[in-house]
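Before relying on records like the one below, remember that each one covers exactly one chain. Contacts with other chains, cofactors or solvent are not represented anywhere in the record.
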Amino acid sequence: MQTIQLSRRQNEILALIVQGYANKGIAYQLGMSEKTVKNHLTTVFRKLNVESRTQAAVWVMRQNMGTR
């Protein structure tokens, strides 16, 4: 089983996605541009091998429940 390494910022963005924030809200919460959020999400989606925010949120929830 492969461990996926995410940066602190990537984890913060994922946490806000799970809470239902849109890119604009994430950018505001973290004090960055919306473009930077989109760049982080592109990297996160690639690392997690997912194609959407929903799939990323499901991935996070599964990790938190200890299932894959």
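The mean pLDDT is 92.
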